[in-house]
Each structure stands twice: as C-alpha cells, then as structure tokens.
Amino acid sequence: MKIVPISQLLPGMFVQSVTKQTGRIKIKNQGWVKTQAGIDKLKKAGILEVEIDPDKTLTESVPEKQPLDIPTPIKKRDPWQKVHSAEQEMGKAKKLYDEARTLQTKAFKDIKAGRDIDITPFRELASGFIDSVFRNQDALACLTQMRQKDAYLLEHSINVSILMSIFAKHLNIEKDIIEELTTGALLHDIGKIKIPDEVLNKPGRFTEAEFEIMKNHSLFSKEILEEAGLTGIAVDIAGMHHERLDGKGYPFGKKGEEISQYVRMASIVDVYDALTAERVYKAGMEPIKAFKILKDGCPDSFDPVLLNKFIQCIGIHPVGTLVRLSSQKIGLVTESNPATPLKPVVKTFYSAKHSRYTEIKDIDLASKRTLDSLESAVKAKEYNIDIERFYKNTILS
Ligand SMILES: [Fe+2]
Questions:
Q1: How far is the CA of 270 from the centre of ligand 1 (A)?
Q2: What region holds the HD-GYP domain (predicted)?
Q3: For the segment 259-276, what is each residue's pLDDT rounded down to a tens digit?
Q4: Cα(98) to centroid of ligand 1, in Å?
Q5: Rounded to the nearest whole angstrom, what is the distance from the C-alpha of residue 41 to the centroid of ligand 1?
Q6: How far apart are the C-alpha atoms of 397 and 391, rounded to whole Å?
Q7: 304 C-alpha to ligand 1 centroid (Å)
Q8: How remote is the CA of residue 20 from the centroid of ligand 1, in Å?
Q9: For residues 303 and 311, what is the distance between their CA atoms, to the nearest angstrom?
Q10: What would the mean pLDDT of 210-236 be, rounded to a whole number?
C-alpha cells in the first residue's frame, strides 16, 4: 500500500481508503478511479490524501464493474438538524427504563416473599443501559430527571444505575467493570425492602431509633446479592455505599483506603440522586445545590477528585434540567455539549415574559447562530408549567 496526495492520483489507480480530508467522506467501496473527472470530484469533496494499492494500478482500460464509489459528502452537523440525537435514542431508552421498573417491582416482590432474586435479567438490563449510554447518554440521563414523586425507591435505584454507567464511561473504565458497577447500582438499595414500611416510608427525618433500623438496609442488600450469587464490585457497592472516607459512615465504619474507588463513586451518585429527587414531602434540589452539598462533604465524606469528575461529567445544568434563557424562554436541557458545558441544547416551549406556552424549538446554545444564553435553572412550579404533560407529549412521544 502507498499513500499519495490527491494531486498525484491518476486514472487507473486503485484507491484503498481516504487517509486525509477536510470533510467526513467514507469510501463505501474500494476501487479504481476511472477518469480525471472522478479525481476532480474527490478533490472537490475535500479529499487530500488517499491510500492506493500499487499492485492493482491499471495501465490500460479500467474495468467497468468495480468503479470507485464516490458518495455524496456528508454535510457538517447543523445544530438545528440533529444527526444521531438524544431524540433518536429516546425510544430505546424509554423501553429500557420501563423494563427496569418492571424488573425492580418483581425483585421487590420476590424478596418480600422470601425468594432469591434472579440476577441474569439485571445483568442484561445493565448491559442495555450501557449500550444506550454509549450510543447517546443524554436520552437515559433525561429520563432520570422525569420522576414520579411516589416511586422513589424504584426510580432511585434505576437512576443511580444510569448515572453510574455515565460516570464510569466518563472515567474510561472498561466495559466489563462498568457492567458490574451498573448492576451493583441497580440493586444497591434492594435491602430496603426488608425495612418495615412505617420506617421506610416515613416522610421527613428519622428518629435515632428509626435511623438505626434504616441503617441495616445496606447489610441486607449485601446479603441479598450474595445469596443471589453475586460477588466483588456489585456486592461492595450494595454493602458499602453509605461508608464515608472519615469512617463515620455505616454499616462497617470503614475509612480511607478501605473504601474502593468504585464504592466512592457509588456514594457520590447515590447522594446526588437522593438530593435531587422529588419526593412527596420535599421538592427535588437543583443539581447545582446538590453539588455544593457534596463539595461541603469533601474530603471527610466524599472523594474530591472523583466528585470534580462527576460534576464535569453530569454538568452544572444536566440533561433534563428546566432552564431559563436570557431571552426569557424556558425549556428543557435535552443534549449536553461536553466541549462547552454551559451551552447545552435546550428545547424551549414557554415564554417567561408572556407567561404562555410557545412553539417548541431546539436551541443549540453553542451554535454561533444563537445569541441566547443560559440564565439559570428554574422550577416548573415557579411558572405554573405542566412539566409532566410536556414530558409525555414531547420528550416521550
Ligand atoms: Fe442506601
């Protein structure tokens, strides 16, 4: 094989691949360039350099049957017209989320009835989450924000699991380990099913005695997973997600190096989701406030390096957050822009200035064509916005 600049490409040469270009062309079929016109077309499409197979260069006529397939150049991504977007992934993500709910509900019933849980479907679900996160993490991330107030235990475990897979992907952890982390996170609070309902569902603060009872849940989770045949990381997450670096956590009072990086990750994600959760008796905290509380807990409770990475990965205005723009438009963050975290894609649907719903529009705040900017996160209640309806009719439809 030989690499040649496009200026040296001649009719009759066999092109193996494109090695340098200004655009994003993919040669569908390798083959001979037949004519100078074909070469000119490649030049025009931004091809700068190609790899040729000198052994196949033809000196006479070029066979008709194997022409070089010159595809139409792929247009550069127009922010107003998304290519592989969160919207495209949403259908699959929603299906996975629904499967997770069904699976969790069944597992709760099994534990209550004294049966062991079957780990296989949880592993499969974790793997489905990971695949979705790798295709476009924004879809599942968005679903973690669409909570039902009365389904905390169910949704918290699912959300922690999704956030764990996003966090682990951000940290470039290998997929096998991400699967362990995601499975462990899905089941980390399963032991709560063994806590009496009056304690588990008590709104507000626990008494000291109630807290002592509640503390048993992570030990129960560990036992349940071990009985189901799990070992290693997943069991550690279930048993130790309430341990704290200064040794003041529970159930074992482990500290510092005794707490693995994986468990440290889980404890950050667990607290973040608990703080931002909307409950019957409390409004969900804005992510930025939750980050502040987690930061205040560093380094006594949480690992500051991992926390910074988590904030970087989730973003100050995570996907699913309701925000107000400088134009007073209100919308939902639907896609993250990792290069410019303060400039995500926002789906606007309400005008704060005119107090009315507007036409739905995707605004990419990172686009040079956009003059708008993100002002702050807001609560749907402040504007009497029916966010559930918006989710149902727009995001999930
Ligand atoms: Fe827990």
A1: 7
A2: 131-326
A3: 999 999 999 999 999 999
A4: 22
A5: 61
A6: 8
A7: 20
A8: 52
A9: 12
A10: 95
Q: Report CA(357)–ligand 1 centroid distance (Å).
A: 39
Q: How far is the CA of 220 from the centre of ligand 1 (A)?
A: 10
**Token reading at 51:** 């790899």
How many of the other CB atoms lie within 10 Å of CB of 394? 14
User: What distance in angstroms lies between residue 216's CA and the mean position of ligand 1's atoms?
Assistant: 9
Q: From ligand 1's centre to the CA of 185, what distance in Å? A: 10
Separation between Cα atoms, residue 215 and residue 244, nearest integer Å: 13
Q: Over 90: is that where the pLDDT of 177 sits?
A: yes
C-alpha 248 – ligand 1 centre gap (Å): 15
Handedness of CA 253, 256, 259, 261 (dihedral sign): positive
Ligand 1 centroid from CA 188, angstroms: 6
The more confidently predicted of residues 161 and 339 is 161
Amino acid identity for residue 91 in this structure: G
Tokens 């409390």 belong to residue: 282
Contacts for 272-280: CB closer than 8 Å, 24+ residues apart: 272/163, 272/310, 272/314, 273/144, 273/156, 273/159, 273/160, 273/163, 274/156, 276/145, 277/147, 277/152, 277/155, 277/156, 277/159, 278/147, 278/149, 279/149, 279/152, 279/203, 280/149, 280/150, 280/203
